[in-house]
Amino acid sequence: MWASGNTSSHPASFILLGIPGLEAVHFWIAFPFCVMYFVAITGNITILHVIRTDHTLHQPMYLFLAMLALTDLVLSSSTQPKMLAILWFHAREIEYHACLTQVFFIHAFSSVESGVLMAMALDRYVAICFPLRHSSILTTAVVIKLGAAVMMRGVLWVSPFCFMISRMPFCPNKVIPQSYCEHMAVLKLVCADTSINRAYGLFVAFSLSGFDIIVIGISYVMILRAVLQLPSGEARLKAFGTCASHVCVILSFYIPALFTFLTHRFGHQVPRVVHIMFANVYLLVPPMLNPIIYGVRTKQIRDRVIPDCCGKEP
């Protein structure tokens, strides 16, 4: 069934294939994805609970970490329940507006995550380069404003994706050969010139993630310079240790994100199954790893989680 309007026509629904080429093992592939999703949900909710209930953690670093955890919850939950339904129950159909909603949440909150990582890099820069002024520069009000700006940036930059797609006609083919609705995958089903959409997609990618990567890079260059000027090796090691968790989180997010972005546009020789697996990794592994990395490497969080798990007082 097709719906039509004054300026566009679109199918009532799309068909998501899951992981084409691995249909015979879809049932078994779903188990590790389910475990990773469970770890992501449990870990990020735990991080949010610990930060909310312990007022000593209401500091810039932990407030940004709470923003990251909330973003990870939205990002993983926007795709994983539907993907598990596809792999386990062959529920491949997704309603048209639900598909566009998924496009919005995936891209908007990916940009929010990138922005939060940038804000965390600025926090580490101020903490190491201006330790005596850290609390006066990054006040709670400033942290909230930064978080709001990152959120608004993602919403305002990504919303045109859905608006432009909704105004375009679609071809009879309504099959999306992956496990979730993504901007470029949906755009390939449009029966019209999509050069403006593709150009805008590149603009958003470079103006958001590109800007964030540059700011993160400059922040860590300044951090490295400041750390190397510290008088003792122990002080340098401690300073590097405060940044190690953030660096791990940055790498786990940007490496699969860049691979997915580049293969969608330029990697025509990359096997489809490799591309789709990386696309799933990009939206699931960082939300799973982030609470583990910060839970293991951050003493303040680790000391509060372990007693709660063991039923002991800290």
From TrEMBL:
Q: Which SUPFAM superfamilies match?
A: Family A G protein-coupled receptor-like
- Keywords assigned by UniProt, alphabetized: Cell membrane, G-protein coupled receptor, Membrane, Olfaction, Receptor, Sensory transduction, Transducer, Transmembrane, Transmembrane helix
**PROSITE patterns linked to this entry:** G_PROTEIN_RECEP_F1_1, G_PROTEIN_RECEP_F1_2
Per the record, what is one GO cellular component? plasma membrane
**Source domain of life:** Eukaryota
User: What's its membrane topology?
Assistant: Multi-pass membrane protein
Q: Which terms in the Gene Ontology molecular function aspect does this entry carry? A: G protein-coupled receptor activity; olfactory receptor activity
InterPro entries assigned: GPCR_Rhodpsn, GPCR_Rhodpsn_7TM, Olfact_rcpt, OR51/52/56-like
Any idea where the G-protein coupled receptors family 1 profile domain is? 43-294
Q: Where are the transmembrane segments?
A: 27-50, 62-80, 100-122, 142-166, 202-227, 239-262, 274-296
Q: Where in the cell is it found?
A: Cell membrane; Membrane
> Which Pfam families does UniProt cross-reference here?
7tm_4
Q: What does this protein do?
A: Odorant receptor.
Give the record's family classification: Belongs to the G-protein coupled receptor 1 family.
What is this protein's record name? Answer: Olfactory receptor
